[in-house]
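Section: Multi-chain targets

For targets with more than one molecule, the full set of components is provided together so that the structure can be written out for the assembly as a whole rather than chain by chain. Components appear in the order listed by the source. The example entry contains two components.
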Amino acid sequence: MRLKIKHVIYCLFGFYTLMIYAFSELKTTPMPLIIPEGWPKPVYDFTKNPLTKEGFELGRQLFYDPILSRDSTISCASCHLQATGFTHVDHDLSHGIEGKVGTRNSMAIMNVAWSKNFMWDGGVNHLDMQPLAPLSSSVEMDEKLEQVIQKLSATKKYKKLFFNAFNDSLVSGQKILLAFSQFTLHLNSYNSKYDKYIRNEAGGDFTEQEKNGLQLFRKHCASCHTEPLFTNQNFEKNGLPVDPTLNDLGRFSITRLPVDSFKFKVPTLRNIQFTFPYMHDGRFKKLREVLNHYTETAALKTQIILSSNEKADIIAFLLTLTDNDFLFDKRFGFPRD
Amino acid sequence: MSVKSRILLFILSCFAYPATAQLSILPVFGDRTIAENTWYVSTKGDSVQFDNIRFYLSDMQFEMDDKTWIKDTVSAHLIDVFDPASLHITTQKIDLKRLKTIHFNLGIDSLTNVSGALGGDLDPQKGMYWAWQSGYINLKIEGRSPRCKTRKNAFQYHIGGYLQPFYSMRKVELPVKNAGVNRNQGAIQQGVILNVDFSLFFGNLSIATQNSIMMPGKAAMQLADYSTSMFSIHATKN
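Its structure, encoded as tokens over all components, is:
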């Protein structure tokens, strides 16, 4: 009889530990994406990667950590700086490991939950898979995923962060990729002067020039740079002559369809004031040069005609897309602990 | 049987490997099993040696005599010819006497290709994923041949691509009826043996000129077509 009571107690104890274990699964804190009013539905499927505070924190640490590159010199942030809309300023072609130069200008990372394809040619088909490209590129971070897993597994810090985010300290390729998305998905810009103007909020008073700029923009530019994301998420030809030293075929290199030759992903224009130089090869340093290109090119389906004043108005409008809340949001910055 | 020995038996049966393996993959070149550092001669007279052969079998389904279908519980298996553990696939029990046809895909379907970061055999850490042009590599064959005037006489075929018109996954359908017992297999093994004969792939190829195919396109589509002929089924039906 004694024995039986003992067994029951053991059994209860076992059950109790199991319960603790089961409930420990619920430790993560949900941190859903904020979807601004009037915006379309995000493309990203959050059911497969529910956003949590712990996942975001892990992703942020990874984003700023040079441990990801072969010689521990380059992090994602080396080419994607917060203060400039998460892109690399002043370099036309981005620089990576050992100072090697890539073939394209780095892109801004903003509102990526709404993007279907990534990179200038759309070669990456899902946000989760995007970090594989810089990690494996011999001119960027030049490191293999297996190696990254090994390096991260060897640190106490990451074991803990992975445990916090996934209830499992075992590092895997899948978890690394999901964590990057947890961070980049939150890099959303929706508090510029333009947004406040649209929402009729304080700080959203447009000058006559800015209003006129918006009208002209809607007429000439919005077919590709569509509001509110300022991209139609498609691949388009905007009339740039080919740079013969790069001969970048754009979307064609992915689809092999002749109609896609020299088409590139339409970039967002949010925070455009700070994301120079412009275009896939960074050929323009100033917005004035961009507008001059659009009026001078004969390669667009509908020609754009703008006076010098009208160009100035469009530029004034483009500057209203600067979002200081986003550019200086401490949650997105270098993690200091 | 006492309770103790029954429990012991149960525990043992959980670990007894490969008692539950229903499908074994047998990679061969003609009538020889494929091994590392071994030369094989193709029907075209090319000598070849292999360093790495890996491929995905996905969406496996067993069609039974009574028209019922049994679906594999795992969506994709990564087979590594030089990793013996990957050569046994465990599925739910099937009655071999009633098994009519086996269906599977060689490679990964387009939906899975656009589904983001996946785990298990589909984790990109397995090295079967392209970084700059997203997508799974369905079949990887790497090795050497004196016929290849390349660095270290290397050849490499990375066959993949999920976008039309270069969708390189292939459906394979193998009738089990009339299949004899495999003669290559020394030990008697319960279950289905999936023979993969790489000599049939190399019998189609001009290895001197076609020795590096590393991206989606026409050439990959052609190799994908050749690759389906490698598979055949041998089952023990007792």
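The mean pLDDT of chain A is 89.
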